[in-house]
Amino acid sequence: MRVGSNPSKTNFTIEIDSTHRVILSVYIPNLEEAYFKDSQTIFKYCIESLVNTVHSKTRISIVINGCCQEISDMIYDYQKKYPIIDQIFYTKENLGKINAIYSIVKSNLEPLLTISDADVMFLPNWQKEVETVFVDFPEAGMVSPVPSSKGFLFSTASTLYYGLFKGKIKFQNVKDPEGLINFQKSVGSNLYQKIHLEKYLVVSNGVAEAVVGCGHFVATFRKQVFEAAPTKVCKFRVQNNSEEDYLDDPNDMSGFLRLATLGNFAYHMGNSPHPWMKEKLQETLIDTSITTPLEIPDPISFSKSQYKIGKFLSRLLFHKFRRQFFSHLGVNEPY
């Protein structure tokens, strides 16, 4: 039998002090296979660079998503050391990236949620730069600290509509080509041609500028984006358009902008440690530029008709007549 009354019944409103949550889903099943043998080192760089570069209103959630015992123990040790790691979700089997992160996305109240792979090196000022984009573009729903010259191709119908009718869209010199070069090295593929390292597509609103589109290995979302997400459990661990269906498209279909910072403020490390990673981690240790969180304005919503118009225009301008459209914007080379 129960004695007394549950205090939650009189204090039933949930209030939080944090404004930004970072979610890491970690899948390292062993340290023996060639693909995973250096994953412990890579994850160490990831989590330490993260805790070194976030402001005081940040909380971190980690999903142990089918990890070996060494990695699980490592994560719990980090939780003891860093109080901002306030959530650890454990699952013995790999549930897939989407199901793992959605277990946290749907159960937290922070207005901004950063979703990151476990092989990202966070650089000083990444959080300030990302939050600044949300301040400058209240229409933004998804912002990455890593710009991509090819990001405009994916789930940017609402962004194109905005650039054509409410702001301005143009090509601009790439601010940090080294970031693009390092990314393609990390995935072991030649993603970019010479022109991609020189120019990227930028949207402006008279106040600020941001790169059109972004990847999703690290990106920050408004919580409202997930109100348009599928309600069914994702059946795929990775690939099969799972990230597009559950992350990218809900943002676009909601009428939010998909943007990236002009500069590069994070690196995708891949699964092989290199000396430069230690150097970059050291920079985060001595960084003194961490500031208080910015006040993020409420989102400005679009109508679904704008998304539909943008979808039609993106097929024409980003695909069928891309060369002509980009020539009009000042880039005459194949892009």
Q: Can you give a write-up of this model?
A:
The chain is of the alpha/beta class and 335 residues long. It has one domain: Spore Coat Polysaccharide Biosynthesis Protein SpsA, Chain A. It contains 11 helices and 12 strands. Strand 8 and strand 9 form a beta hairpin. The protein starts with 19 loop residues before the first strand and ends in a 7-residue tail after the last helix.
From the 3D coordinates, which CATH architecture would you assign?
Alpha-Beta Complex
Tell me the major beta sheet: 10 strands, mixed
Shape: globular
C-alpha end-to-end distance: 71 Å
The helix tally amounts to 11
- Rounded average pLDDT: 91
Strand proportion: 15-25%
Report the radius of gyration as a whole number of Å: 20 Å
CATH fold label: Spore Coat Polysaccharide Biosynthesis Protein SpsA, Chain A
Count of domains: 1
Low-confidence spans: pLDDT under 50, at least 5 residues? none
Q: What is the secondary structure topology, with strand pairs?
A:
Blueprint: E1 20-26, H1 39-51, E2 58-65, H2 69-81, E3 85-91, H3 97-105, E4 112-116, E5 120-122, H4 126-136, E6 140-144, H5 157-165, E7 168-173, H6 177-186, H7 194-198, E8 199-204, E9 209-212, E10 218-222, H8 242-253, E11 257-260, E12 266-268, H9 275-285, H10 304-320, H11 322-328
Parallel strand pairs: 1-2, 1-4, 2-3, 6-11
Antiparallel strand pairs: 4-10, 5-12, 6-10, 7-8, 8-9, 9-11
Helix pairs in contact: 5-10, 10-11
